[in-house]
Amino acid sequence: MDVRDAVAVQAGKPLEVTTVQLEEAGAGEVLVEVKATGAAATYRVDVRSLDELSTRELYDLLRMRVDVFVVEQNCPYPELDGKDIDALHLRLLEGAELLGAARILKPYEPQDPSKIGRVVVSPDHRGKRLGDVLMSEAIAACERLYPENPIALSAQAHLRRFYQSFGFIAVSQEYLEDGIPHIDMVRQQATQPA
After folding, report:
1. Higher pLDDT residue, 40 or 155?
2. Could you give the 3-state DSSP secondary structure of residue 41?
3. What is the rounded CA–CA span in Å between residue 42 and residue 65?
4. What is the pLDDT of residues 121-148, one digit of tens each?
C-alpha cells in the first residue's frame, strides 16, 4: 500500500492527497493538494536543514513546538535537545503560515532506521486532518532519502492506532517519557522484508 493510500482510510472520511512538484516550488519544496469531503485546499511542504531556515521560520517552528509540547501538554522538558542541528525539518505551510511540522533524523549507521519525531499541528488548524498529511509527507521524505532503511518513531501511546494506520508496528512496551506514556514503533520500507 502506498503511504498516500493510508491517508484515504483515516477516520473513514474521504481524503485524497496529491503531491505535485511545480516549477515555482523552491528546492526541497513540494506542493501538496488536499481534497476532503468536497472541499479542497492547497498546502506547500518543504524539507530543509536547520541552516536553510530563516530566523523567522526557525522561530515559528520552535514556538509551535514549545506551545504544544511544553505549554499545552504541561510538560516541562528540554525541547531544544541538540538533535535539530543535524535534522531535516518538514514544514506544512499555507502561504507563509506554518500549519504543522515534523522532524526527520537520518540513520546513525547504515542499518539503522531513520526517525520521524516532533510531529505537531498548530492548535489553530486542528480538525483538518493535517496530521495525516504531515505523516504521509514525512514517510515519503524518508522513503526518498533513505530508501533502504526502516522508519522509527516514539509515539505518544494514545496515538498508537493513528501511527498503525501508516504501517507502523509497536516494538516496545509502553514507557514514560517526560511523564507522558510512549511506545516505540517501526515501519519497514517496501524494499525490506517484514
Report:
1. 155
2. strand
3. 23
4. 999 998 888 999 899 999 999 999 999 9
Phi-psi sector, 30: left (phi>0), alpha (psi -120 to 50), beta: beta
Which residue type does 53 have?
Answer: L
- pLDDT at 20 > cutoff 90: no
Which triple of cell numbers denotes residue 111? 542499518
- Entry pTM: 0.81
* Whole-number CA gyration radius for the chain: 16
DSSP 70-122: IIITT----S--S-GGGSEEEEEEETTEEEEEEEEE--SSTTSPEEEEEEEE-
170 beta partners: 185
**Identity (one letter) of the amino acid at 161?**
R
User: 62 to each of 20, 69, 93, 100, 156, how far by Cα in Å?
Assistant: 27, 10, 15, 11, 19
> Percentage helix, strand, coil, to 5, in the chain?
30, 35, 35
Q: What is the pLDDT of residues 42-70, one digit of tens each?
A: 788 889 999 999 999 999 999 999 999 88
Strands 151-156 and 114-121: parallel
